[in-house]
Amino acid sequence: MDISQTDEQKMLQDSVTRLLERSYDFEARQKLLASGQPWSPDTWQSLAEMGILGLPISEESGGFGGSMADIVSIAEPFGAHLLIEPFVSSILLGGQCLAHGEGPAAEAQLARILTGEQTAAFAHEEGRGTADPALVSLAASESDGGFTLNGEKRMVLGGAQADVLVVSARARGAAPAKDGLSVFMVDPDQKGVRIKPFVTIDGRHAAHITFDGVRIPAARRIVAEGYDVLEQVISKAIIALCAEAVGAMGALLRLTGEYASTRKQFGTPIAAFQTISHRLADMKIAYVKARSNLLYTTALKDAGHASPLDVSVLKGQIGTLGRQIGEAAIQTHGGVGMTDEISIGHFHKRILAINALFGDSEYHFRAVGQSLASS
Amino acid sequence: MTSQTKAELDAFRDEVAAFLDTAPTDAIREAGRKTTSAFPPFEQAVAWQVILNEKGWAAPDWPEEYGGTGWSGAQRTIFEEEYRKRDLPPLLPNSLKMVGPLLIDLGTEEQKAKYLPRILSGEDYWTQGYSEPNSGSDLASLKCSAVADGEDYIINGSKIWTTFAHKSNRMFMLVRTSAEGKKQQGITFLLLDRTDFPGMDIRPIRGLDGNAEFCEVFFDNVRVPQSGRVGAENEGWSVAKHLLKHERNGSSNSPVLVRYLQRITESAREEMSPFGGRLSDDPVFQRDLGALHADVTTLAHFERLIMGGHEMANDPALPSVAKTMTTELTQRVSLMMTRIAGLEGLSLQLDALTVGSGVDPMGSELDLIAMPFYLNSRATTIYAGTNEIQRDLIARSLQVA
User: Domain ends where: A60, A90, A114?
Assistant: First the structure.
């Protein structure tokens, strides 16, 4: 099993980092957020030109067939720069589902996503993260050579901007059955699709979407039995999100160490106070734990040995350790840590959002314990 | 480091498993199941070391020329896994993991030839004389003095927390040879060939768990030869710091915690929840078990990355991070064990805990070890540099000039 970064991964990581240092410092990112744009088309295009958008997609689906370790190598700097571009939603979730999909429509759609000219959104969430696809209950009733969708999807990242919605739905049975789940390609302009857009605490554009008698031709059902596909797509996305969180945690650790070394009170840098220095030490310990877990789980994934339990261990740990680091960073920065004007709180909010997506740490810890206790 | 094929590693695993299935005596196995400390029951641990040494496996971490095994990281992991699966006792750490590696690095050829074979064979057990009643975390303030007299030193003072001093035959210690300059500068590192020199008195101290694991040692004009010095006079502090590296790096600690967690999980399937039903079905227990498993798994991942030579291993703060992480996790596992034992953990059962007593535990074996393990493991965050000291060191590495 490979546990160390390859030279290619280092180069990839360096080139992404250089791009972001050049065009995506905190000030530029805040300006982008204030502009009301959902993301920067220039940055998105640069990532497309660098081959980043096709990286996670298999070669037979028109991508570059990158490994999990490749994806983690770029996702860490994405997190460290608080990138808001729809890499996870359009590529790792929507795009990956399309790549697993059957039929020329999915293939053609994916090609337009990978060039960056269009985006996809993954309409899946139905409550509390919907980490277990078996809980999906949005109805897809089959009739007259097609399907009718009825129900609601929440927190669809990039949902109001997407050119195509990739929707998980139940064609048969009832939650929590693993059987009977399908994946559909839905045109957001179609009759019966109602989109309620909003912005999230971590600066992303998202939407709640209702499907009210939306007719879908059979050819736009891209996966018939979808549980395994959904599980695979989500587990990869979870690892990438965790890599983003680890990138954010590393930035928080560095910035807080610098701040505590330079900020003076009572005539001395506050890092000289043991309560402060021990909090810094705890942040470092949490970071080492989080990163070890990320890198080893990534290697397990690439070796084909990552079980759902391993992914749950990672997701649970990142949520908890990330929150610890973020809260400690805010506390150490004092009043200035409470302002939206510096990056600290933004990193924290990104970590909170990642924790809540696809099952929070409490959910994943219990899932781990449940599986251990019953086996 | 050599890398082996899967078939070679499988064959190695079979060899290890076959040996570990047959070599240990019943008393050694019993000692393993009743280990409640980083220090296993003394006599059985020594007996086990003798057997392992005959096989050439007593000190896998040592360089091959001194009796190490030359195993790859993968082989060491396999050995650890098979070892823990069978609940075998760890070997006593002081000689094999502390003074042995130190002598390999810094000892004279004469010292190496004299001491290393007897450390491996289990003939010698070395107790550590560092702390004093008034010098704990501030170790460099130590006062136990050694005054040169001809070829000898005359030692006066006392040492405390000397683990198993009452069972040891040798001692390595720090003494003050000069009061000049900074307090770190007048310290000398000494090897004592005996622990019964005239004027030496050893008092075992009963710990929270009811066992006398550590001792206080008094020195009243004790005459020892200067040839036992490691490094130069007054330069013992850097020798001690070197040794500390070995003590803090240790080897992998996760396999034993993984095994404890398995024992906890198995017991939870038998134990009742206070709400009725089985404890293993209780959602709160499941959540807590999952969180603990996640942390133990994280430690295992971390140790494998470090053993595999990941660049993370170059971080200067790493030994302190590892010590803090490992010890605090050990305490959490021990706490979970007492939670499983519940009321059954309250009965004092020192006789049943004694290997070879023939006294059966009143409840399960987990109930028997839970409370002594919990109480004993409070020491883990105090010894080898308190975790407060470790955090000071970690924080220092994060500060910018």
Answer: A114
Q: Which of residues 273-302 of A touch B (CB under 8 A)?
A: 274, 277-278, 280-285, 288-289, 291-293, 295-297
Residues B133-163 pLDDT 10s: 999 999 999 999 999 999 999 999 999 999 9
Question: DSSP state, B39?
Answer: S
pLDDT band at B1 (very low <50, low <70, confident <90, very high): very low
If DSSP codes are grouped into helix, strand and coil, which group holds residue B278? strand
Q: Any idea what the CATH number is for the domain that residue B329 is in?
A: 1.20.140.10
Would residue B203 count as lying in a domain?
yes
As a residue count, chain A comes to 375
Looking at residue A89, what DSSP letter applies? I
Q: What is the DSSP string of A120-180?
A: EEEE---STT--SGGG---EEEEETTEEEEEEEEEEEETTTT-SEEEEEEESSS-TT-STT
| Cα–Cα separations (whole angstroms), residue B142 to B54, B145, B191, B203, B224 | 40, 9, 17, 19, 19
| Residues in chain B within 8 Å Cβ distance of A372 | 265, 289-290, 293
Q: Look at the alpha carbons of A158, A163, A168, A171 in this order and tell me if their dihedral is positive or negative.
A: positive
Partners of A370 on chain B (C-beta within 8 Å) are 283, 286, 290
Mutate to test the interface with B, among A277, A309, A325, A360 (most CBs of B within 10 A): A277
The model's pLDDT over A63-75, given as tens digits with 9 standing for 90+, comes to 999 999 999 999 9
Among B282, B288, B298, B305, most A C-beta atoms within 10 A, so best to mutate, is B298
- A253/B310 touch (CB, cutoff 8 Å), yes or no: no
Phi-psi group of B70: left, alpha or beta (phi > 0 → left; psi -120 to 50 → alpha; rest → beta): left
The answer on B384 and B301 residing in a single domain is yes
Question: What range does the domain containing A142 cover?
Answer: 120-225
Q: How confident is the model at residue B73 (pLDDT cuts 50, 70, 90)?
A: confident
Q: What is the mean pLDDT of residues A71-96?
A: 98
